[in-house]
């Protein structure tokens, strides 16, 4: 992945000339009309958006289009025209635009539930967007500046889990752990699953915390190479049910750790920096993508390359496995997500084109019915696997996407939005035939 340069983030207020004091004006306007006990409740009422408010016509992000000098439709077109997709291979996106058409949209699998602007997800590296993780349909972990934060959508409580701006050191002793810890770690990637939180840093740092225990369990540097950034973390279970995680690094290596003793089990090297890996449900195969147009399918036991994945036109930053273990997907800066079938890897079985930028995150639902694909900004696509990826729902909003995550039960879908004014956490829920059920989730 790239170390210098990158996308110039286009903030909403840069183009639409929004008033930076807009929220203060809303706050003042409501003081005389709303009887509340504290400022927190008032701020929540003013800035947050519920599903009921959205049904009555309020913008889900709270953008006051009627007060602006541009309509939502015109601003959407401006974003599509002006957003600059980052490419390592010049014109890769243009070639895709000419060769591929988008799948039919209009399906509705998830519906808007809530948007909170009290939550402020952030992004540190423009290509790494796996910074939002749901551990239940109500609990979400995400990066906000230098801190890992937890948000409960039931209590609307925001709490800090780890602050990396200062000194972080382990409270337990394991072989290979740096007991002196780290100071001022810049977090590049995050993963939270099975009570385990793993954060990766710009200098190859790994910090591991068990969510049900105080303090940090393990700190380590995967590499001392100059080009050491940790690009992705994949947490999973082995055949016996033990928790493991795999770190993908810019030093062209992937390292597998067990989460009981935090020891390195495997270390494989490749010809190029590895941007993302994901392991198959049976634990036997690893999809590996990075700074190369081709991806790799690798034996998880010995690192042997079993097949190349040929078709993408640029570098890839995302991958995910379908629960069936036969199909998996890769996401690329050529603005496509490609779906592959183990039974015939000569070509991808589906090429799914985005609207404006690279595919930075991919998630399959636990039941295998849906695949969620996130662009760098503004759009998240939900594809029906049962329809052969030919039908999709398009989530349309404004802002850079810090991450996207489905809850383990597939009930909730969370999207982190980063923007100077409209940073927030969007929550969607599985669509139900009866609207009154919204009050019970």
From TrEMBL:
InterPro entries with a match to the protein in the record: WD40/YVTN_repeat-like_dom_sf (IPR015943), WD40_repeat_dom_sf (IPR036322), WD40_rpt (IPR001680)
Keyword Cell wall biogenesis/degradation: no
The entry's keywords: WD repeat
Domain of life, per lineage: Eukaryota
Nucleotidyltransferase among keywords: no
Pfam families the record matches: WD40
Segments annotated as WD repeats: 309-350
PANTHER family (alphabetical): GAMYB-BINDING PROTEIN (PTHR43991:SF21), WD REPEAT PROTEIN (AFU_ORTHOLOGUE AFUA_8G05640)-RELATED (PTHR43991)
Protein name: WD repeat-containing protein-like
